[in-house]
Amino acid sequence: MTKELFTDPRITVMGLLSEVYAGLNERFQPLLAEHKLSLAEFDVLIRLSRSPKYRLRMSDLAAQTILSTSGVTRVVDRLERDGLVTREACPSDRRGYFAVLTDAGVQRVEAILPAHHEMIERWFTGLLTPEQLTSMEEMLHTIRDAVRPRSTAGVSGEVESRCLERPAATH
């Protein structure tokens, strides 16, 4: 093999992305543990807290996280057991369920966010100029939209409104 295969900048960028993700997770883990949450649980709570009416269909929640549909089910089970999330059936689709953040879930997220914001600033956004941060956000959106096209499902509330509409009666 030629050395160029090993020094290709595409390999470097992927390696750096993996290292940054792992490093940030290591930094944030103690804060989450202090609040008795795993990274996956916190991710679900954040996604719900940023969604219309604090709710997402379970399938949309899976599309927005790094979890499979069965993984989301297990995380929501734990959060529901802890009183942070509830499930609500979709009135017009017997197969559909929403994960809904409870008041206790909102309080848990609110308790974590000040320290979480400080850590994001210290270990991530504060290391970048405003221009770099804007460029990074644009780049990440471009890549995310290509590799995870369903990741914004349910964000605008459109899926919820379709679910809540009752099908027209047919005669």
TrEMBL record:
Q: Where are the transmembrane segments?
A: none
Q: Pfam families this protein is in? A: MarR_2 (PF12802)
User: Where does the HTH marR-type domain lie?
Assistant: 10-145
BP GO annotations? response to stress
Which GO terms label this protein's molecular function in UniProt?
A: DNA-binding transcription factor activity
User: InterPro entries in the record, alphabetically?
Assistant: HTH_MarR-typ (IPR000835), MarR/SlyA-like (IPR039422), WH-like_DNA-bd_sf (IPR036388), WH_DNA-bd_sf (IPR036390)
Residue ranges of region Disordered?
150-171
Q: What is this protein called?
A: HTH marR-type domain-containing protein
